[in-house]
Amino acid sequence: MENLTRELWLVVGVAYAMVLGGAVGYEREMKDRPAGFRTHMLVAGAAALLVELGELLLFDTHYRSQQGITIDPLRLVESVVSGVAFIGAGTIFATRGGETVAGITTAASLLMVSIVGVAVGFGYYFLALAITLLTLLVLTVLNFVEHKPHKNKEKRADT
C-alpha cells in the first residue's frame, strides 16, 4: 500500500508539472510557435516523471543491493537537458537566406518547462510555480515591450 501511495503522489506531481508546462505552452500556442501547448506539457511532465522515478527507485526494495543504492540528482537533470536539447533543436528554423532564425524562444521555453518539471520532481512546488510565472512574464510582458518600439518606428515612417 505504501508503494501505491508513492506512485499516486508521483502521478499528482507529474500532473502539476504538466499544468505548469501547459501554461507556458498555451502562450506559445497562441503565438503559433512550432512547439505549443501539448509539447510543453509533455516536456514538463517527462522531466518530473524522470526525477520522481529516480526517487521512487530509492525506496523500492527490488532494486536495492546489500549496500543500498544512491542516486545522483545531477545525472537525472543532465538526462532531462539532453532530451530537451534534441527537441529544442527541432523547433529552431533558419530562413532560406539565413538572415533570420526562428524558434529560439520556443526552444528556451521548452528548456524552462523541463526545469520546472525537474523542480516539481524534487518536490519544490512553490519554486516551480514561481518560475512558471516568471517565464510567462518574460514571454508576454517583455514581448510587448520588445515589439512596442518597432511599432512606433513604423508609425513615424508612415506619417
UniProtKB/TrEMBL annotation:
Family: Belongs to the MgtC/SapB family.
Domain (MgtC/SapB/SrpB/YhiD N-terminal): residue spans on this chain: 16-147
InterPro entries linked: MgtC/SapB/SrpB/YhiD_fam (IPR003416), MgtC_SapB_SrpB_YhiD_N (IPR049177)
Alphabetic keyword roster: Cell inner membrane, Cell membrane, Membrane, Transmembrane, Transmembrane helix
Protein name per UniProt: Protein MgtC
Transmembrane segments: 6-27, 39-59, 101-120, 126-145
Entry annotated with the keyword Signal: no
Pfam families assigned to the protein according to its UniProt record, in alphabetical order: MgtC
Topology versus the membrane: Multi-pass membrane protein
GO cellular component: plasma membrane
Magnesium listed as a keyword: no
Stretches assigned to coiled coil: none
Taxonomic source organism: Tahibacter aquaticus
Localisation per UniProt entry: Cell inner membrane; Cell membrane
